[in-house]
Amino acid sequence: MKNLTGKVAMITGSGRGIGAHIAKRLALEGAYVILHDLEIHLLEETANEIRAAGGIVQQLIQSDLSDHDAGDTITQRLNVEKIDILVNNAGIAPVRSFQEVDQSMFNAMVDINMRAVFFISQKLLPYMNDGGRIINISSSLKKTYAPGFITYVSIKGFIEAFTKYLAGEIGGRGITVNAISPGAINTGLNPWFETEEGIKVLLNDQALKKLGQPSYISDAVAFLASEQASWISGAIIDVDGGFKLAP
Ligand SMILES: NC(=O)c1ccc[n+]([C@@H]2O[C@H](COP(=O)([O-])OP(=O)(O)OC[C@H]3O[C@@H](n4cnc5c(N)ncnc54)[C@H](O)[C@@H]3O)[C@@H](O)[C@H]2O)c1
């Protein structure tokens, strides 16, 4: 028997990158996955890969998380009565210095990386089975100062505080709420990750001398989603190769 047989899991931003890997992993564990993204062609690609690997795709939901009603839109479109696992993964990471951040960029980041996480969790909660799981995605950049990431990391700080408070709020239903804080993960979008300089910089900052892969994050999500993690809640788990621990 697989770990998540019969569970229903929704993963935001699962058209590509880390979210797509999480969706594939949870499907391999037997979950019925609800894929969500802005881009329908990305959703279809992920769905095809999952089906080809023998997984079950319950539904594709295309929606824009910049929309303030994203939580309502998603719940209205659900084609299941109950869900068990929500992974708030979708996020954007534009790089801009403090002086360059304007209202429109700030608003987009608040909408997608923060407001959507808060209200999707709130609106989906009545549809969640007791004993369910909410897993948020933070970032290990909080451990250091990285130029250009002031808005991104400040908002990830909100996500971590929200994770702990929501865990306290809904723990009585046996629903766990945790966050994973990934280090640098090569999702194939940023060619710098594969340059000699990029590899040197990344490995220099990590205690473990191997580069971050999406599977490290999806493995951690699969664990938090499993029965074996039923007594872990309000935790922020660094999955970052020991980022900033190296001398
Ligand atoms: N890749 C990394 O190194 C890294 C490190 C730390 C944390 N993270 C976090 O992991 C999560 C996923 O990152 P990723 O690297 O896979 O990113 P990505 O850009 O590869 O994927 C993000 C997904 O979210 C979707 N998305 C973006 N804006 C949306 C919107 N308005 N509405 C709906 N969907 C939208 C995109 O279409 C995409 O499929 C993010 O929360 C990110 O902050 C990533």
TrEMBL record:
Its EC number is 1.1.1.107. It comes from the Bacteria. The keyword Signal does not apply. Pfam families: adh_short_C2. Gene3D superfamilies: NAD(P)-binding Rossmann-like Domain. InterPro entries: NAD(P)-bd_dom_sf, SDR, SDR_fam. GO terms for molecular function: pyridoxal 4-dehydrogenase activity. SUPFAM superfamilies: NAD(P)-binding Rossmann-fold domains. Keywords: Oxidoreductase. The keyword Isomerase does not apply. Belongs to the short-chain dehydrogenases/reductases (SDR) family. This is NAD(P)-dependent dehydrogenase, short-chain alcohol dehydrogenase family. The gene is pldh-t.
